[in-house]
Design brief:
Blueprint (H helix, E strand, L loop, with lengths): L1 E3 L4 E11 L4 E3 L1 H12 L12 E5 L2 E7 L7 E5 H4 L9 E8 L1 H11 L22
Parallel strand pairs: 2-6, 3-5
Antiparallel strand pairs: 1-2, 2-7, 3-6, 4-5, 4-7
């Protein structure tokens, strides 16, 4: 489904369609399988529901699993589709999947990812994530 594109991304083709949900979704079994292959480090038990980070045209967004989404489909909130060239969905489109380190960096920047075992930000750090 995805192949190596660069040091930061994999490239794949998925059917892109709008969703009424407020977050991007893909079939939960595919989400879990990709999560295991791309994001799992292999060190012990790891959650396989971590959001995948995908890029459609110039927009990055987290993608969650949902059983109701058809296989090989990326369901994207209509607000995200407004700024794209996607017309007459579902439309087969190239999408980028951020590799593990890049995804972590993007989610940390957006405030949507926290390493396992970390409950909060260090209160002594006035500028969290600065310089990272």
């Amino acid at each position: 489904m995805f192949e190596v594109f660069s040091r930061s991304y994999y490239l794949g083709r998925l059917y892109v369609t709008p969703t009424d949900s407020d977050r991007a979704l893909m079939h939960s079994e595919q989400h879990e399988r990709i999560n295991e292959q791309v994001y799992a480090s292999g060190d012990g038990l790891e959650p396989l529901d971590t959001p995948l980070v995908m890029k459609l045209e110039s927009q990055h967004f987290p993608v969650h699993g949902d059983e109701s989404v058809p296989a090989n489909t990326l369901a994207v909130p209509e607000s995200l589709l407004e700024g794209t060239d996607v017309r007459n969905p579902p439309s087969l489109r190239e999408v980028f999947l951020a590799r593990r380190d890049r995804a972590r960096q993007l989610l940390e920047f957006a405030g949507g990812w926290q390493p396992p075992g970390v409950d909060g930000v260090d209160s002594d750090d006035e500028f969290p994530n600065v310089g990272t």
